[in-house]
Amino acid sequence: xxxxxxxxxxxxxxxxxxxxxxxxxxxxxxxxxxxxxxxxxxxxxxxxxxxxxxxxxxxxxxxxxxxxxxxxxxxxxxxxxxxxxxxxxxxxxxxxxxxxxxxxxxxxxxxxxxxxxxxxxxxxxxxxxxxxxxxxxxxxxxxxxxxxxxxxxxxxxxxxxxxxxxxxxxxxxxxxxxxxxxxxxxxxxxxxxxxxxxxxxxxxxxxxxxxxxxxxxxxxxxxxxxxxxxxxxxxxxxxxxxxxxxxxxxxxxxxxxxxx
Amino acid sequence: xxxxxxxxxxxxxxxxxxxxxxxxxxxxxxxxxxxxxxxxxxxxxxxxxxxxxxxxxxxxxxxxxxxxxxxxxxxxxxxxxxxxxxxxxxxxxxxxxxxxxxxxxxxxxxxxxxxxxxxxxxxxxxxxxxxxxxxxxxxxxxxxxxxxxxxxxxxxxxxxxxxxxxxxxxxxxxxxxxxxxxxxxxxxxxxxxxxxxxxxxxxxxxxxxxxxxxxxxxxxxxxxxxxxxxxxxxxxxxxxxxxxxxxxxxxxxxxxxxxxxxxxxxxxxxxxxxxxxxxxxxxxxxxxxxxxxxxxxxxxxxxxxxxxxxxx
Lengths: 260, 312
Hints:
A: mainly alpha; B: alpha/beta; Rossmann fold; 2 domains; 6-stranded mixed β-sheet; 4-stranded antiparallel β-sheet; 10 helices
C-alpha cells in the first residue's frame, strides 16, 4: 500500500473544506449582501441626482471587501479550530496526510469559497448597476485585487489559528487587516521620528506588514480611471509571494503542534 | 527493542505533559517498551489516565515523544508510507456531520489513496460489513453514537490496512454492538491482519486478545501472552449450598435466606466441605472451580503498583 499523491490529498481536503462552508450555509451571507446592495442602490437612486452610479459602485466594492474579509477571518479561523476541537483532525492526520498538505488544502478550500462569494457579490453589484443603466466591467481590476487581499488575510487566519485559540486568532487577523491598510502611515512616521530604535521599528513594521492599501484600487475604478495591467500583475505577484510566505509559517507552526 | 518483522515497536517511549508556560509537569508515559508481531490481536489495558490514549497518539504522530521512539513497519510514524498501512478509530469519534455516510467513506478513501472505481466498491462493502448499507445517503448528523462508532470502524478497515489501531472500540456500545466489534476484530485476525486496541473493558479483551499489556500511570506493569500471564490452574472453588453451614476450612462469601456461598481454597477442603454439608443434612447446589482471570491479573498488577507507591 503506497501513500497517495500530494495533489490528490490536497484536492480531497480542499473540496471537503469547500463543501463544509457551503453546507454550513456560509453562502447565506450572500443573500444579506444582495439585499443590502439592492436596497441601498434603490434608496440612492431616489435621494441623489447625477452621482448615484458612483455611490453604488463605491458602496458595492466596499461591501464586497468587508463581507470577504469577514468570511476570511471568521471562517478561516473556525475551520482549523473546529477540526481540532471536534477531533476530526485525529483521523485525518492518521491517514497518509502530511501536515503541510492539511494547511495548504484548508487554504485553497477557503480561497475557493471566497472566490465564489466575491464573484456572486460582484454579480449582484453588476445587476444593481445594470438596473441604473450603468456598466460594471471597469470594476473588475479592483475586484481582482480584493481577492488577492483576501488570499493574504486567509493565510494569516490559518497562521494564527495554528498558533492560538480562535478568539485571539480572529483578533490578530483583524489587526493585520487594519494595520495592513495603515502601513503607509508607518513610513510617514519613520520620516518624522529621530534616527534610532523608533525609526528602525517603524521602517521594519512598514516592510513586514502586508501593504494592503496598495491593493485597494476601489477609488481609482469608481472614478473611471485605468488600473494598468503591469500594476495588476505586480500586485498579484506581491500577493502570491506574501501569501506563500505566511502559509509556509502556518505549515511550520502546524507541524510543531501536538494534539493532546 | 526493535524486533525484526514487528508491525509496531515502541522503545523507551516517554511523554511528559507540561502546563501553561512550562509550569507543572505530569509524566503520561514512562519508558514504555512494546513490540507487536504480525497477525496478533494486542490489547493495551489500563484504567482511565493510565496512558493508553497517549500511547496511541504517539504511534500516530499526533504527539511527539520526549524520549524513545515509535517504529511502524520499521519506519517513523511521521512517514506517510507507514501510515498508509494503518487504519485508526479514535475514542468517542466525531466525524464531519454535514457529510452522508457514503460521502464520508469516499473522502477517507481518497486520503487513503484508493482509486475512484475501487473506492466505490469498498464504500459499499464497508457499509454492509458494519451493518449500515441502508444508511449510505443519511447525513452523519442523524446518526446515533453507536452508528458513528460503526462508521468509524468502516473508515478504519475499508482500505484493507495491515494494522488496525482502535482506541476503546467497545466504549459506548450496547451488548450487541460490542459483540459485533469483537467479531469484526476476530475476522481481521482470521484475515491475517494485526489489531492493536486499547480498552478498560477486561472481559472483551480476555475473549479476543492474543497478547496484552497492562499500563498503570504511564508504566508497563505486565506484558505477554494471555496464557502465560494468567494462570490456568484452579485457584479456589465457589460452593453454593442450602441448609445449615457446616464447620470447615472455608470463607462464607454471602448468605441469602438458607442459601450460602462459600469460598473453598483447595481440592482437599472441597471434599471435606461437601462431606460435612451432606452430614449436616444440607444440599449442595453448585460447585464452580475459579481460575485466574484477566481481571484478577489486572487488579493484582495495578493493586501491587499502588501498594508499592504507598510504601514508598
